[in-house]
C-alpha cells in the first residue's frame, strides 16, 4: 500500500479535518493521530499507521 499524504485543515474538538494531496477531504478522531498534530501538520498514512512528516 502506497503512503497517502494529508494536511490538517481544522481541529474541531476530538476530530481533525484533513485534505489529501489529491484534494480528498477526510475526518478522523485525534486519538488515532500522532501526538503533536496541529492545524497545518503534514501527515502520512502508511500501512494503517499515521506519522508526522517534517
Q: Tell me the strand percentage band.
A: over 45%
> What structural class do helix, strand and pairing data support?
mainly beta
Q: How would the global form be characterised?
A: globular
The main pleated sheet reads as: 5 strands, antiparallel
> Count the helices. How many?
0
Q: Under the CATH scheme, which class?
A: Mainly Beta
User: Which strand order spans the largest sheet, edge to edge or round the barrel?
Assistant: 3-2-1-4-5
> Helix amount, in percent?
under 10%
CATH architecture: Beta Barrel
Task: Using the coordinates shown, work out and report the CATH topology.
Answer: OB fold (Dihydrolipoamide Acetyltransferase, E2P)
Number of domains: 1
What is the distance, rounded to the nearest whole angstrom, between the alpha carbons of the first and last residues?
21 Å
Q: Over all CA atoms, what is the radius of gyration?
A: 10 Å
Summarize model confidence as the mean pLDDT.
Answer: 96
In N-to-C order, the SSE pattern is EEEEE
Amino acid at each position: 500500500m502506497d503512503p497517502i499524504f494529508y494536511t490538517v485543515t481544522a481541529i474541531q474538538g476530538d476530530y481533525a479535518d484533513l485534505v489529501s494531496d489529491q484534494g480528498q477531504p477526510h475526518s478522523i478522531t485525534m486519538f488515532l493521530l500522532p501526538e503533536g498534530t496541529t492545524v497545518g501538520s503534514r501527515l502520512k498514512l502508511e500501512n494503517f499507521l499515521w506519522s508526522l512528516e517534517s
